[in-house]
Amino acid sequence: MSTLRIGIAGISGRMGRLLAEEVLASGAQLAGGTSRSGGLEGVTLFSDTGALFAASDVVIDFTNAALAATHAALAATHRKPFVLGSSGLSVGQEAAVAQAAHVTPIVYAANFAPGVNLLFALAERMAAALPAEQYDAEIVEMHHRQKVDAPSGTAIGLGRAVARGRGTTLEECGMESGRDGHTGPRQTGAIGFAALRGGQVVGEHTLLFAAGNEQIALTHRSFDRRVYAVGAVRAARWVSTQAPGLYDMKHVLGMG
Questions:
Q1: Is 110 flagged in the annotation as binding?
Q2: Topology of 5-112+225-252 in CATH?
Q3: Which among 78, 80, 143, 205 is annotated as catalytic?
Q4: Among 58, 126, 175, 202, whose CB has the most other CB atoms within 10 angstroms?
Q5: What's the CA angle centered on 114, arms 113 and 117, to 5 degrees?
């Protein structure tokens, strides 16, 4: 059986370098990558992402939301499995990724850390047990000062998990974020978001269920970005054997 060839979009970036290390540590073959700022010693660089897909069995992409739809379309064109970790996708961009998944298997996740995905599962179960009329759900997240999107993809993933547990969607129950000035009372059933930015915080998320007589908090902290790289490489190995479809980390972890 041939060694799995994994390509990395944006291989010279902070996440790209970690992904390259974890691909090699996993025993897979590093097919190469794309880069806007030069390459890594001994790593094959491709002039465009289409060439990277052609040379790889699976491609991992943690670049940015603006490229997600284009890269998903390339995955479909080349019929290669795809792991997408970019955050901040619009509804239209997510729809484009879902469309490509009709042709090729895609893992698209808000977060690749196993602990965060267990947090999603707990959030859904707790939301189902704690009525929205009595328990307000608030999500607080903090990231490094360079992060460009807010709330984070993980925070939105937590909000979606809470909404699922309550039999609705995040769009239907409403998001309350960026509160400022005279906002009036909190809306019952809405899910609140607060985004903090500063320093070099890798990622911290807290989900609060607040009632009149008790408060419950679930918190996850990431101390090293490598946890995301390890999870993404695990997802790449898993998705390489799957049928076309749109998957997330709960499927990779056997919770789907």
A1: yes
A2: Rossmann fold (3.40.50)
A3: 143
A4: 58
A5: 90
CA 167, 155, 227: angle at the middle one, nearest 5? 120
Does domain 114-222 match CATH 3.30.360.10? yes
* CA–CA gap between residue 128 and residue 132 (Å, rounded): 9
pTM to 2 decimals? 0.86
- CA nearest to 85, candidates 56, 110, 58, 52: 110
| Domain limits, the chain | 5-112+225-252, 114-222
With tokens 């890594």, the residue in question is 40
Closest CA to 63 of 13, 104, 2: 13
On the question of pLDDT at 75 being above 80, the answer is yes
The verdict on whether residue 2 carries a ligand-binding annotation is no
Is 80 a known active-site residue? no
Is 144 known as a binding-site position?
yes
Model pLDDT for residues 198-239, shown as the tens digit of each residue = 999 999 999 999 999 999 999 999 999 999 999 999 999 999
